[in-house]
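WARN no homologs supplied; continuing
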Amino acid sequence: MKRFEFRLESVLRLREAQLDAERAKLQQLIAEDRRIIAALDAIKTERREAKAFLCNRSGLDAVELRNIGSFLLGMDVKTGTLSEKRLEIGRRIEQQRKVVVQAERNSRLLTKLRDRKRSEWQYEADREIETIAQDAWTAAHFGGKHTKPETP
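OK structure emitted
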């Protein structure tokens, strides 16, 4: 009996490679989202520290107040920009998740088909081996001649 061969094996490998590539893209987007979250957290920390500085400091002059005000305003602009980026990344992540799910389906379909074909092949191989074993047993016990039971 010939060995098992799945005619669509190269297509399956291609689909699996596409799935890996799409998963990598998703991981990159998730990493970008985490970087944005870290930047937003850093801005919150800096704002808290600036406010604490203001509260603990007495006798600020106009220049220091203006500088701190500009700093806080700049932080607000940065926060807004990063928040917009995060929303965009969130949309891209959801879109990429859909692409990954579709790629998983495509790969899984071919995998299931290959498994079903392998099971069918195995069943046929087992039947062929059984037939050969029966023929060998018959040949060994009856000298290669098939005899019919006598009918009375």
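The domain at 9-141 is CATH 1.10.287 (Helix Hairpins).
OK
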